[in-house]
## 1
Amino acid sequence: MDNDRVDALRPDRPQAFEIKIDRTNYKVREMVLTGGELRRLPEPDIGPDRDLFEVVPGGSDVKIDTDTKVEMRNGLRFFTAPAQINPGR
Amino acid sequence: MTTTLVIPGPLSEEVATASRNSMECAAVLLARRIEAGRDVRLLARSLHPVPPEAYIEQSPHHLLIASQGYVPALGAAEADHAVPIWFHTHPGEEGAPLPSNHDRQVDREIADLFQLRSGSGLYGTLIASPRGADYVFSGELTPETGETSSIDRLWVVGERWKLMPAFARQATLPEALFDRNVRAFGPAIQTILGDLRIGIVGAGGTGSAVAEQLVRLGVRHLLLIDNDSLSESNVTRVYGSTPGRVGQLKVEVLRDHLLAIASDLDCSIVDGMITTRSVAWALRSCDLIFGCTDDNAGRLVLSRISTYLLTPVIDVGVLLSSDQAGTLIGIDARVTTLTPGAGCLVCRNRVDLGRASAEMKSPDERQRLANEGYAPALGRVEPAVVAFTTAVAAAAVNELLDRLIGYGPPERPTETLLRLHEREISTNRAFPHDAHYCHQAQGKWGAGDEDPFLGQLWVTV
């Protein structure tokens, strides 16, 4: 039995996790989501012109690439930022 | 509403250096926001430059920046309870620091992110272009809800003090009344004097002399603080006082006198002691303060204000000494300048902490402790002479002029000692003690409204 299935059987395992991307709350049931899966939670999907970051309170926020795996927990916060900005005259 | 960005000298120098770069460059400036009456003050805390590796493209005319170039500063803004201000330059002496279409597009792309991730609900912008050794700027502040407002003025507090209006603001010519001043230091300084918000704590011999000189110089925004009434013996040295006004509040007597000199003066008065939280709170709207009080506890508050609110304080003290026969033997005075990077009055040992502690106690408790020898006796009436209080007031106003105009040598002293009985004047510089709140490393420069206010306990009245 793999670890995910073992965790799924644990009686104290939450049925769902509440996470936030930008200003919107999402309820997810998976223990782990990849950056790509997180990007598909909003409607429409987060486009390639924006980067996805995980908020690290009191630390440095982490950029979540498409194949990065993120363990879910309640209260997890993400935000998106323009991948490039172009100030000038 | 007027929004002022207050920026310590070293941070302003970083902005100036960036603006002189021939390539456009960017950073996130973090500032704490305080509301002072109708006005807003942004107290600059730190500058987070975009790291070189985050520039995908960089030219004199445009930038292309990856998200890693500005995102880390937003978490820092949240941790510091600060507003993130997106800063970039428009290089060249001819550069205009006004938002371009590209800049407006960037504002639309990142404003929401800045407001959200910083937790401040605000997005600020600042654009700078070089002008000689200085720079010109424009800036805006955009709340999540509500309209964008401009950053109207930038107040640089360091070795020199510079009040810079936003680039687009039309300069007004000083009135003909100030012709002699303008001939001495030019129209720009005259305009600055008219725009500065100055607090004067103490409306007695030195405070009233400072106030009168400031108004005659062209200062038009004053806040006067004193809790005392005019006594008969005050008439010998308090400017504007007359025997007929004995018994009235000193701040009212002084305000009326100043308005007779300049009817366009905006003069607020507070009848209270600066050791009261609400009175100290009122000083948050000031660009700089003259400390003309003779109480030690008040000086402790002024010292903290200079650090926590980035408000320079010019503190004045006069001491006349007599021999046993009552004859004058010493006329000592000092003008101490508290500004970011300079030691505060505690680091300089210019406050009698025992007397400060006694001053904060109730009269009964103070008397009991004094009788038991645990506190110094207070309430002694010190000698005071108009010639000497006026001399030190003039030295204090000179200090302001030197900081604005820069007529003195570049290594500016932070204290001037007047030993009038010796006909001697000397100067010195003192720096913050490492572990003291006035040291930059303690993170209190521009702490603003942090609770408790000024990091101290307040007596409940």
Note: DSSP finds two helices and eight strands in chain A.
## 2
Amino acid sequence: MADTPLPAPEFPMPRSAKCPFDPPPELTKLREQGPLTKVRLWDGTEPWLVTTYAQQRALLGDPRVSADPDTPGYPTKATPAAGEGKLSFVMMDDPEHARLRRMVTAPFAIKKVEALRPAVQTIVDGLIDDLLAGPNPADLVEAFALPLPSLVICELLGVPYDDHDFFQDNTKTMVRRTATPDERAAASREIGGYLGELIGRRLTDPRDDLISGIAARITAGELDHRQATEMALLLLIAGHETTANMIALGTLALLRNPDQLALLRESDDPKFVAGAVEELLRYLHITHLGRRRAVTGDIEIAGRTIKAGEGVILVNEIGNRDPEVFPDPDRLDLTRDARRHVAFGFGVHQCLGQPLARVELQVVYGTLYKRLPGLRAAIPFEDVRFKNDAFIYGVHELPVTW
Amino acid sequence: MKVELDTDKCVASGQCVLTAMDVFDQDDDGIVVLLAEEPGADQLDDVREAVAVCPAAAIRLVEK
Ligand code: SF4
């Protein structure tokens, strides 16, 4: 008798309300059954889901795996509502991807980013001063987590201080949950126009900042003005929601694990704080809907063949909970060595901004809980609203008191 | 043991520098530069970790 194949499970799957920090229980079960399985998307297509750490890294590092959404087989968006366009080199393959990405790698080199650390510390201290001077309780997302990446990217791009307010208001609108699509588009046009103009000014009057670096590529004939503006906009947007959600969701996770929070509050060791950031990145893994790719040549994996023209989804949040690599993976343990996590992805598309994200998070986690030793949530845990349907996972707001 | 780089593959993530600062550096564009071609025994663990975390498989550790 022929087996009737079980229908492929639907993806994405819901998280359990009991532990909103853990990946959906069904995903964990699928990983336990093997590295590869088919899932069904909202539109009825059935890409492969890759669940184990080793296979995810192998595939993300394989040149037969394409990040270009126009490649046949590329899995459709995770939800019908998740509308993202083609974002510069993030959605291109080599060699064009490498050509464009290399134009903006310079400011993210470790030493350049380290040189920004004092500026990041000043920004964090200033935001905490404002928080302490303002109303108590306050929403940590609005008052701290969102403005931080905005101010840091201003510093990096070289946005003049006088324009901070304009710049911050518009970036806030671009990432604000309650903004209408029209409001968002208008803010994005404003910022795009602003960045285009700033690039124009730096063409004739270059400084030591990222915008001047991008402008120099126009002079060298490697980019036109539009491509340059798109690139600046990509860099601006990419670090916002991600860092902000790591701060807010991370704080909530620490408040739920007071022994771990105490470790951070009491440590003066930058190495420990850096390690704690890696563990929080591993444990929270806010890019929770999987990385999508299309396969351009047959690939053998775990005794099966993924064929050219098929789609794959790599759920790195499950890879980061793979017990083969991280023992007792569902425990938040700031003392473990979590550096091999794949929260920033893997392969040539691994997050370009990760050195900057690390410095921001290290400064935040090393400062916030020391300056607000009595920090606690101002609403019951059950009332916290998690971003289950958003592309980046986190909390909508986090009212805190101290 | 000898370190070999494939700088064409490097995506300038700086993971190697964070892991083994005495062995790896980055040029002005963030591309990996080798400081110690034949790292000492006490550096080998860090180099192995750098090989493991390099997202682009740009680093190899080979027997001489
Ligand atoms: S870790 Fe790999 S990709 Fe990153 S800078 Fe070093 S060699 Fe390049």
Note: Residues 44-53 of chain B form the longest helix (10 residues).
